[in-house]
Design goal:
alpha+beta; two-stranded antiparallel sheet; 1 helix; 2 strands; 24% strand; elongated
């Protein structure tokens, strides 16, 4: 079986073309009270604020998770995964 390359170039980092930005995510009730807030959310630069809010609220939740871990550089691991 042979898998044909479609979206990357041989010899180039597949993640090099992706730009990321750091933003804050805040979701509020109609009365103005804050339901959810998370600062320093790193998302792809092309994402809307709504997309950033959804991923932060649904997938970056901290309930039941130990205190936030520190990012540590690792050889061979894309920077956005640190």
């Amino acid at each position: 079986m042979k898998i044909e390359r479609k979206f990357t170039t041989a010899g180039q980092d597949a993640y090099a073309a992706l730009a990321f930005v750091t933003t804050s995510s805040e979701i509020r009730n109609p009365d103005g009270s804050t339901v959810f807030r998370l600062d320093e959310v790193e998302v792809p630069a092309g994402w809307s604020q709504v997309a950033s809010d959804v991923i932060a609220q649904k997938y970056f939740r901290k309930a039941g998770v130990p205190v936030r871990v520190k990012k540590i550089k690792e050889t061979g691991v894309p920077e956005f995964l640190w």
